[in-house]
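Re: that backbone. Tokens:
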């Protein structure tokens, strides 16, 4: 295993120092380090962060390898500064059995670019009718701890209660896609002034807020653990704020696109801006940013959702919802938050790693810890060109936008997966 000496790098925004990586761990930290056998990486002007962790990634394999594979998604993640991603269950077949989650887990290990942690389905086939094999998935080699029907809401309150109760046995988490389906039937975008002007059926904010409020009460009642996916409205923030004040065991995530893009983007009828939950208003964005800063929203999660060309380059009504996110998330965080490195590390690495139970991830570079880290050039700016992305899909909403920050290197247990901004393999 090659040793690496990273010189004059700022660790989470602190004064420049040197990092020596040897045998998969950070061996030494301090100024003026020397290691003749080590490969030197010039860290001047760079910031070292704990490797990013994504709680919400769609890798599409098995079933839709035309849109993404575990390997291509892992490469996109590494280029985005990630060392671990949690892969959602809405594959084909659905990851609702021990066999499927183990398949995804093994594909991640074979790719060797990031740690791929499968998320299991809550219900069989994501149908919302009966619980999947939660215990078997938890006991599998993949050791699943988060379960979600993401893409669909667990709408039946009795089933949701049973799921929250069941996973308590192994301290599991139910991650909810909060959408009351009876309020969003036929919906095409956020319900508001823009949808009225465009003549598109609206997706009302209350459809999200009502499910979060219900699930918070269920979680409080059974003493379980709830994680709310892709929070998008100001009302949802207030429900979560009150729940946390009462001590409910609930965490929540926000996506980069919900922190930056508004429903006005739909006026172009470009399906790249169609996403679920939909892009909301400027007032919602302001509330989400405040909640992210004060901790009501715990995590920035990408909801990386690759789609094949035929599923996006079509009429708005027929387009699949979803956007790419892995290779641009840190840049959006920098754009939204500025160089608040400790806050970025907390929301994009430490907290998601803690929620997912990923030992060795989300730990700041220090002597003796696994060398899972990323090096960022905060002074760089880059223009996003879809054809240059590592994903098999091209549905990025940031095409030809110039964004701050560039991932220079990513290390997974001391081995580089990205160097000089390029994938190593």
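Recovered sequence:
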């Amino acid at each position: 295993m090659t040793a690496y000496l990273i010189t004059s790098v700022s660790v989470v925004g602190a004064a420049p120092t040197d990092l020596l990586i040897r045998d998969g761990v950070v061996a030494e930290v301090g100024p003026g380090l020397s290691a003749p056998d080590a490969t030197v990486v010039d860290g001047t002007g760079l910031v070292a962060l704990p490797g990013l962790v994504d709680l919400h990634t769609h890798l599409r394999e098995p079933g839709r390898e035309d849109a993404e594979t575990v390997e291509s998604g892992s490469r996109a993640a590494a280029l985005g500064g990630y060392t671990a991603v949690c892969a959602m269950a809405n594959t084909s077949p659905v990851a609702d059995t021990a066999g499927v989650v183990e398949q995804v887990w093994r594909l991640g290990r074979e790719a060797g670019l990031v740690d791929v942690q499968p998320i299991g389905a809550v219900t069989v086939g994501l149908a919302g009718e009966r619980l999947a094999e939660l215990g078997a998935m938890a006991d599998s080699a993949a050791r699943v701890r988060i379960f979600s029907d993401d893409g669909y809401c667990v709408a039946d309150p009795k089933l949701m209660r049973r799921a929250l109760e069941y996973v308590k046995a192994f301290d599991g988490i139910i991650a909810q896609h909060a959408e009351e389906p009876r309020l969003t039937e036929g919906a095409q975008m956020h319900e508001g002034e823009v949808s009225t002007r465009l003549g598109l059926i609206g997706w009302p904010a209350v459809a999200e807020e009502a499910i979060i409020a219900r699930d918070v009460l269920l979680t409080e009642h059974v003493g379980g653990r709830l994680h709310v996916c892709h929070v998008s409205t100001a009302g949802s923030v207030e429900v979560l704020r009150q729940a946390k004040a009462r001590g409910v065991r609930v965490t929540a995530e926000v996506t980069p696109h919900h922190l930056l893009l508004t429903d006005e983007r739909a006026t172009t009828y470009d399906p790249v801006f169609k996403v679920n939950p939909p892009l909301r208003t400027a007032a919602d964005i302001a509330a989400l940013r405040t909640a992210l800063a004060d901790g009501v929203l715990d995590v920035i999660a990408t909801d990386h959702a690759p789609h094949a060309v035929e599923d996006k380059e079509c009429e708005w009504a027929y387009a699949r919802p979803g956007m790419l996110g892995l290779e641009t998330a840190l840049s959006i965080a920098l754009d939204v938050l500025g160089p608040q490195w400790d806050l970025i590390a907390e929301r994009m690495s430490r907290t998601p790693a803690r929620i997912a139970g990923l030992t060795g991830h989300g730990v700041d570079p220090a002597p003796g810890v696994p060398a899972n880290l990323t090096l960022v050039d905060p002074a760089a700016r880059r223009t996003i060109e879809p054809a240059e992305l590592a994903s098999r899909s091209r549905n990025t909403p940031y095409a030809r936008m110039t964004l701050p920050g560039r991932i220079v290197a990513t290390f997974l247990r001391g081995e580089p997966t990205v160097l000089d901004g390029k994938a190593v393999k």
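The chain has two domains: 4-47+367-423, 50-356. Residues 205-222 form the longest helix (18 residues).
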